[in-house]
Amino acid sequence: MRIVIITGASSGMGREFALQLDKKLHSIDEYWLVGRNEEELAKTKKKMHTKTRNFIADFNSRKALFPLVQELNNIQPEVKMLVNCAGFGMVGYFDRISYNDNLSMIDVNCRALTSLTHDCIPFMAVNSRIINLASAGAFNPQPGFAVYCATKSYVLSFSRALRGELKDLGIYVTAVCPGPVNTPFFNKAERYGNVYAFKKLFMADQKAVVSKAIDDSIRCKEISVYGRTMRAYRVLAKVVPHRFIIELLNLMHKLKK
Ligand SMILES: NC(=O)c1ccc[n+]([C@@H]2O[C@H](COP(=O)([O-])OP(=O)(O)OC[C@H]3O[C@@H](n4cnc5c(N)ncnc54)[C@H](OP(=O)(O)O)[C@@H]3O)[C@@H](O)[C@H]2O)c1
């Protein structure tokens, strides 16, 4: 049995991955969708044409993935694709964001992603794919988004190294690094502070970002960056010393007040 596993499938880009992959891939027997919000995950399942199973999991708990891993071991399917999409970010200065929210970003964005990837690799064969949602925030540190950007730097670094390790097995890892995308992400992100207004000017459409990410993964690309602005930003973050970008963001933060 060939399956695709997608986390964060209850909302935004995770749901979009499920719907687009369902249309694009023709040899999949089942989709295993993972999400925290049972009602929203059920809505995604309703729209799927291929057989779909939902797994409710809150990644703040280390036991959240136990039922899914148990099913992997019982059924022994071939995991053709793993999409690690669950994630969230809190805008605001580190010491003003609650201890739990700061640590939760690490649990959801890094620990759960690493844990599920480790559990899935034994079930992957030649020509399988892993798609990890990083962010353009992975390209440089950002005051006012410190923990989130650090978690996404982890995802990018981890994905690139893992890709190197798995290449000879024919398993290809793609890190997706979008700039701002029009999803419910920002409704949750602005509990402690507001996103810079200029970021909202570059808001991309989730359908286009996900479509490019799927195409890039099929083409075995290492990194998927949607749009000219974000591609230019990536180059900028490589050539401009990060301390200057940090100073600039600090200045903008003061002007915002
Ligand atoms: N939108 C952007 O601007 C943007 C830009 C770059 C990268 N990203 C990344 O893209 C990914 C998808 O985000 P999105 O934009 O689609 O945002 P979204 O609509 O808010 O979706 C985030 C998903 O992550 C799940 N999630 C959050 N906390 C969780 C937890 N504790 N346990 C299990 N699942 C949890 C959410 O489930 P619930 O609905 O149950 O909370 C939801 O399904 C994230 O990794 C995000 O960091 C987003």
Helix-strand blueprint:
Elements: E1 2-7, H1 12-24, E2 30-35, H2 38-46, E3 51-56, H3 66-75, E4 78-84, H4 99-120, E5 128-133, H5 146-166, E6 171-176, H6 185-189, H7 197-201, H8 206-218, E7 223-224, H9 228-239, H10 242-256
Parallel strand pairs: 1-2, 1-4, 2-3, 4-5, 5-6, 6-7
Helix pairs in contact: 1-8, 4-5
The structure holds NADP nicotinamide-adenine-dinucleotide phosphate (NAP).
NADP nicotinamide-adenine-dinucleotide phosphate binds at residues 8, 10-14, 35-37, 40, 57-60, 85-89, 108, 133, 135, 178, 180-181, 183-185, 188.
Which key terms come to mind for this protein?
10 helices, alpha/beta, single chain, 7-stranded parallel sheet, Rossmann fold, 49% helix, 257 residues, 7 strands, binds NADP nicotinamide-adenine-dinucleotide phosphate, 15% strand
Task: Give structural notes.
This protein starts with a strand and ends with a helix. Helix 1 links the parallel strand 1 and strand 2. The protein has one domain (2-256): NAD(P)-binding Rossmann-like Domain (Rossmann fold), CATH 3.40.50.720. The protein is built from ten helices and seven strands. The chain has 257 residues and is an alpha/beta fold. Helix content is 49%, strand content 15%. Helix 4 packs parallel to helix 5 (146-166). The radius of gyration is 18 Å and the shape is globular. It has a seven-stranded parallel beta sheet with strand order 3-2-1-4-5-6-7, with helices on both faces. NADP nicotinamide-adenine-dinucleotide phosphate (NAP) is lined by residues 8, 10-14, 35-37, 40, 57-60, 85-89, 108, 133, 135, 178, 180-181, 183-185, 188. NADP nicotinamide-adenine-dinucleotide phosphate (NAP) binds at residues 8, 10-14, 35-37, 40, 57-60, 85-89, 108, 133, 135, 178, 180-181, 183-185, 188.
